[in-house]
């Protein structure tokens, strides 16, 4: 065989082995990434890593006894002999707000859409979405300004707006209030 042909064959063989090794490594990385993604997604859904790999798992829910999850936490807003009941969401900002209660705050109307107030402490925005599209009855915190906002009319998407909860009853008591008004906010039993 000609020396040039031998060199070409050697080059092709080495290149082929290199490409095979790279392809094998990419497949291993993809498989590893897919497994990690599946385990991460399952952990969000309450499935442990062992359960996600075991097709025989009967119950994929985790026991939440002793956890600090909020379940049916409600607050009462009292003003002008009226009440508004809010069912709180389970998120770090809501928990931070609840730690401040009881509170008495002065609310005012803003843009004919919401009633706002400025608590003395800023609330955590840890794990908060970048913003929300509020609807009637949303009890929120606007992180950029540090104010609470209770929506009695729909509004568009707002960056920095975090939902704390949703009004369960009494929204009609807010709509027609004019001027500033004092509100007592407390947890319900």
Structural commentary:
The chain is of the alpha+beta class. It has 4 helices and 10 strands, in the order H-H-E-E-H-E-E-E-E-E-E-E-H-E. The chain has helices spanning about 5-45, 50, 90-100, 170-175; strands at about 75-80, 80-90, 105-110, 115, 130, 140, 145-150, 160, 160-170, 180-185. The strands form 2 sheets. The protein has an 8-stranded antiparallel β-barrel. A hairpin with a 2-residue loop joins strand 1 and strand 2 (about 80-90). It is rod-shaped and about 105 Å long. The relative contact order is 0.16.
Structural class: alpha+beta
Order of neighbouring strands in the sheet with most strands: 1-2-9-6-7-4-3-10
Number of strands: 10
Low-confidence segments, given as residue ranges, are 24-68
Q: Tell me the distance between the termini.
A: 92 Å
Q: Helical segment tally? A: 4
The main sheet comes to: 8 strands, antiparallel, barrel
How do the SSEs run, as a string of H and E?
A: HHEEHEEEEEEEHE
Report the C-alpha radius of gyration, rounded: 28 Å
Task: Outline the secondary-structure elements.
Elements: H1 3-44, H2 49-52, E1 74-79, E2 82-88, H3 92-98, E3 103-110, E4 114-117, E5 131-132, E6 138-142, E7 147-151, E8 158-159, E9 161-169, H4 172-175, E10 181-187
Antiparallel strand pairs: 1-2, 1-10, 2-9, 3-4, 3-10, 4-7, 5-8, 6-7, 6-9
Short structural summary:
Helix content is 30%, strand content 29%. It has helices at residues 3-44, 49-52, 92-98, 172-175, and strands spanning 74-79, 82-88, 103-110, 114-117, 131-132, 138-142, 147-151, 158-159, 161-169, 181-187.
